[in-house]
Design brief:
Structural class: alpha+beta
Strand order of the largest sheet: 8-9-10-13-12-11
Shape: elongated
Radius of gyration: 23 Å
Helix content: 10-25%
Distance between the termini: 25 Å
Strand content: 25-35%
Number of strands: 21
Length: about 400
């Protein structure tokens, strides 16, 4: 969720800094963002903490656990400004968020920078320093992009992508620049994991994290941080009603090294369209329980062509049901997408356990590289409001 650039943006940033929290809260109310759980705009660097604390009571100086996490991470979070050329998506330019991952790279969303012209990406750090950035690699399927920064400010240490999976109910902070209000933080919990997010590419983004931390335009590309200061996910989009989404660290940990090394990432491709098996389908096919995914389409010439059989309207109860991959149960579409994304690579041969004509059997498929994505058809910010696609892996 990038946000269109504002010619008064820099002036507004100075105004927020001078008016402090009350001024920012008033601006948020004007945008209809007031109420419980709304993010509070802040901008605290090491220098500003020292100067601001002199005029505040000890209680305010101490802050909360969230304050400590914020202060430990904010110097690594950047405002991303883009000057565009009207390329993929909506064109023009805009604003977003990114965060430092090592001494020369910043991670953000692909949709934040995909319209950038050459030399059209500028980053602002918590110290008010600006740096030009160039694109190292992008991946439209995971909506991730890595930027290179020459002469990274000393205060900007790399944030770590979590190696362990998030836990539902775990507290998190979303740090970014909603509506261009820099260095804002919102608090919430992990509301769900393993979500499958619709994407304009026609392939879902798997293994995503759902959170109730407020997410707004401009937050895209920012970190969803645990209280242990690890990045659990890269903020992707908000869907309203306290529902937001982040691309999981698990997926980013696979994609980002390839983007840095090769400029791109190759996703595994099975070449099928599927739908969940509900009670009605299960009864029609003769399954004892409603689980797995029904193969509705097999892409001609794809890896599954000649191996899997799609359902046919002329044959009620036909079509293979995938129930496991390499011994791992596949109860639904999200599990199928997540397994392929996190556990496989192009060229791998996988063992599929299927139900065909009421009989359980095993087949092997050698995965290919996912074909080139189509141009974005709708702004990504609207994606999570749509229904999950029936095709994907």
């Amino acid at each position: 969720m990038g946000v269109t650039s504002d010619p008064d943006h820099c002036t507004r940033r100075r105004l927020l800094r001078s008016t402090g929290v009350l001024g920012a809260a008033g601006a948020a109310t004007a945008f209809g963002l007031g109420g419980s759980g709304a993010g509070v705009a802040q901008n605290e660097s090491a220098d500003s903490n020292a100067s601001d604390g002199a005029d505040q009571p000890a209680e305010a100086e101490a802050g909360s656990e969230y304050t400590a996490v914020y202060r430990d991470t904010i110097d690594s979070v950047v405002l991303v400004t883009v000057t565009g050329t009207g390329g993929p998506g909506t064109g023009g330019g805009g604003l977003g968020t990114g965060f430092v991952i090592d001494d020369e790279h910043v991670l953000t969303n692909n949709h934040v920078v995909e319209t950038a012209s050459e030399g059209g990406i500028e980053l602002q750090f918590s110290t008010e320093e600006w740096r030009a950035a160039s694109i190292v690699g992008t991946d439209v399927y995971s909506d991730l992009a890595v930027l290179r920064v020459e002469d990274m400010p000393d205060v900007a240490a790399g944030l770590s992508l979590a190696e362990s999976d998030p836990v539902i109910g775990q507290e998190v902070l979303a740090i970014g620049n909603p509506f261009g209000f820099d260095a804002s933080v919102s608090q919430g919990i992990v509301s769900g994991t393993g979500r499958s997010l619709p994407s304009p590419t026609g392939f879902s983004i798997p293994a995503a994290i759902q959170t109730d931390a407020p997410i707004n335009p401009g937050n895209s590309g920012g970190p969803l941080v645990s209280l242990e200061r690890e990045v659990l996910g890269v903020v992707f989009a908000g869907a309203g009603q306290t529902i937001g989404f982040a691309i999981s660290a698990a997926l980013a940990n696979r994609v980002v090294p390839a983007l840095i090394e090769d400029g791109s990432y190759d996703h595994a491709y099975l070449g099928v369209g599927v739908q969940p098996v509900g009670p009605e389908i299960a009864a029609e096919i003769g399954l004892e329980e409603a689980t797995g995914v029904l193969v509705m389409e097999v892409v001609p010439g794809g890896p599954a062509d000649g191996v899997l059989q799609p359902a046919s309207t002329a044959r009620p109860g036909s079509g293979d049901v995938i129930v496991a991959i390499n011994g791992q149960e596949i109860p639904n579409q999200s599990a199928l997408s997540s397994y392929l994304a996190l556990e496989t690579s192009p060229g791998d041969t996988i063992e599929l356990e299927i139900i065909r004509d009421g009989e359980r059997q095993t087949v092997e498929v050698t995965l290919a590289e996912r074909p080139a994505a189509e141009q974005s058809r709708t702004p990504i910010g609207g994606g999570p409001r749509e229904q999950p696609p029936t095709t994907g892996p």
